[in-house]
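This section describes the prediction task in plain terms. A model, or a person checking by hand, is given the sequence of a single protein chain and must write out its three-dimensional structure as a string of tokens. No templates, partner chains or ligands are provided. The sample shown here is typical of the held-out split.
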Amino acid sequence: MFRTFAFLGALSGGLAVAAGAFGAHALRARLTPEMLAVFETAARYQMYHALALLAAAALAGADGSTRPAVWAGWLFLVGTLLFSGSLYALTLSGVSRLGIITPFGGVAFLAGWACLAVAALRR
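The expected answer:
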């Protein structure tokens, strides 16, 4: 799982940088300040959890023997897709009902951090 989570963490971090730049340059004139702030929140949380994926990769190790670290990695990935993904979609589409999905991503993030803490204690 080390390689999978390290790859996904690096990919997600790069996409977070691209999203932040896109928001700052291409969306500034197209979104309200409130919606731009929502987009920036999505990019910021994506970056935080890209780094968390790298931490999960490190704790999982090359053999993937630390089950809580593996759970943490998957929860961070799901959280990013649900939390940041729903916020990106909400801001770009204007469909406010997409915000219903966002809290599920937040719960996945919280569960991922709990699993990461357990993994750290077991190492």
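For orientation: Helices lie at 2-25, 33-60, 67-93, 102-122.
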